[in-house]
Specification:
seven-stranded parallel sheet; elongated; six-stranded mixed sheet; alpha/beta; Alpha/beta knot; 13 strands
Length: 233
Amino acid sequence: MNRERFIGQIENGFAYLTDEELHHARVKRIKIKDKIEINDLKGNIYLTEVLEITKRYIKCRLIKKISVEEEDFKITLYQCMPNHLSKIDHIIESISQLNVYKLVPVISQFSAVKEKDILKKIKKWEKKALNSLKQCKRVYPVIIENPVKLKDINSSDEGKFVFYEKEKERTVKDFLNINIRNVSVVIGPEGGFSEKEIELLKKKGFVPLTMGKNILTMETAIITGICQIRFLF
């Protein structure tokens, strides 16, 4: 059975939904005696039964802890920022569903946005990641870090790749026989990368890859790139 999942607090053997989660439960028409799942954001998912509904909270009885297993394969997405940051609003849900571990906003040569503008968006993106967590039933939300400049990208992951529109030969298939568990992926903004940026990333250990002959939009490139990396490893 596909039960509704919420984010709640566990206190003294009971689970509570408050604030936005209370509102969400009301929208979903949750009733007393309904069975719902609650994520405490500490790595635990509980099956619960609704006992009490008030204006301030919903109180639930813990029935059992649900066995969960987080994927140990982790993708960190270094995403160069588009000129319209609202485009990132729309990709948070997608990368959450694709189990991206961490999103790092990157200011590159062709990113016409300022760090302060990106910082204003972080809370909104974190909220979107939490909402998506309930829908796709992850245990933890996508981690969203503060922005960095491309020259300051510092990854210690085993695999490091940059999807580059001018790369013509190397694809993910060239790495089929490699077994790694942590991957960093860099994807460019609308204007792509300069050759200087690619050379800088190569010095940091990033391998340029092609997605094919067509030039993709940033949104399509993100989903395509992440799917290729997940399929590969």
